Amino acid sequence: MIYDDIGSFPLPKGVTREWVEKNVHSKEYEEIVQRAFLMKVNAGVECPNYPQFRDMVKQFMEIIRNYQEDAYLVMKSEAKIVELEYVVKIHSDPIRVCVTGPFELYVKEFGTVIYDDVLENLAKSVARFVENALEYPNVECVSLDEPSLGLNPDLQPTDEQLRLAFEHIDFDVDVQIHLHAPIFYERLLEVETIDVIGVESAKDPSALDIIDAEELESHEKKLRVGVARSDIDGIIAEFNERHGVNAWENEELIVRAINEVESPDVIKERIERAYDKFGDLIAYIGPDCGLFSFPSQEAATALLKNVRRAIDLWTT
Fold first, then answer.
1. 228-287: per-residue pLDDT in tens?
2. The pTM is what?
3. DSSP secondary structure string, the chain?
4. CA 272 to CA 15: how far, in whole Å?
5. Which residue ranges form the domains of the chain, and what is each CATH number?
6. Measuring CA to CA, how many Å separate 182 from each of 211, 260, 268?
7. How is the beta sheet containing 2-3 ordered, strand by strand?
């Protein structure tokens, strides 16, 4: 099992997304990205994602819209992730790359009525972002983030549309799909280009009950299992109720809440339960989702460190 993270991360205090959008290509932003990436590395993440500070749809759709070779087909020369370019300058070990998936891009742009030709061009655009990312030899995992696939009840793609969305993303690295609900997992078993199905199961352990290990194995798929909660509001609410405090008012209490509610021992128990059910079918583990909603980089790092300690406890 490889320890990775989903991608998003809190910005430093005083820096906003609005500032980032205006300064993406500045030296100051490059240094912000590099410092945050090293926080992940130093916390023990084995295959860290570039720090995703920008809106997950806007980050890609603005490039696609502004540099179209055809309708919603981005020019390959422009399909680049600047944050990745910044981190490869300082890191030669394995890196994970999150790209917003074609369905998520489509839904945010057009809604849930799917026109196959546009969906396919968006899929080809995603593939071009991936292809350019793989110019860096230490990119060893690519993840397609598809929160609406399973969460939005109006999004009901056909099997042919699932094929159109993902068949172009066919590369010789681990291709994950990050689902926020596992409803579509069975149909994705038939998509040959997807290697690893990501399941958020720390907050909702019952999500793993939906997954059938024999089906996974027969389709030669692996799992990425969420073993640490990333719902910081819920974590702090639970801590506040236990102790009759308001941790939001104190940075030290926030970190204490994370260390208590999401302790290494708690996370270790989740790893054990998942491994007992799926064994070596688990290829990746880490937090359920991204950590952008955490109130500080220090708080997010505390969770990442606890996952590292939990893995070390489990393996010793």
1. 999 999 999 999 999 999 999 899 999 999 999 999 999 999 999 999 999 999 999 999
2. 0.95
3. -EEB--SB-PPPTT--HHHHHH-TTSHHHHHHHHHHHHHHHHTT-SBPBPPB-S-TTHHHHHHHHHSEEETTEE-GGG---HHHHHHHTT--S-EEEEEE-HHHHHHHHH-SS--HHHHHHHHHHHHHHHHHHTTSTTEEEEEEE-THHHH-TT----HHHHHHHHTT---SSEEEEEESSGGGHHHHTT-TT--EEEE--SS-GGGGGG--HHHHHHTT-EEEEEEE---HHHHHHHHHHHHT--GGG-HHHHHHHHHHHT-HHHHHHHHHHHHHHHGGGEEEEEESS--TTSS-HHHHHHHHHHHHHHHHHHH-
4. 39
5. 2-229+266-294 (3.20.20.210)
6. 8, 28, 22
7. 2-3, 282-287, 222-228, 196-199, 174-179, 139-145, 95-100
* Pair of tokens at residue 187: 């149909």
Total number of residues shown for the chain:
316
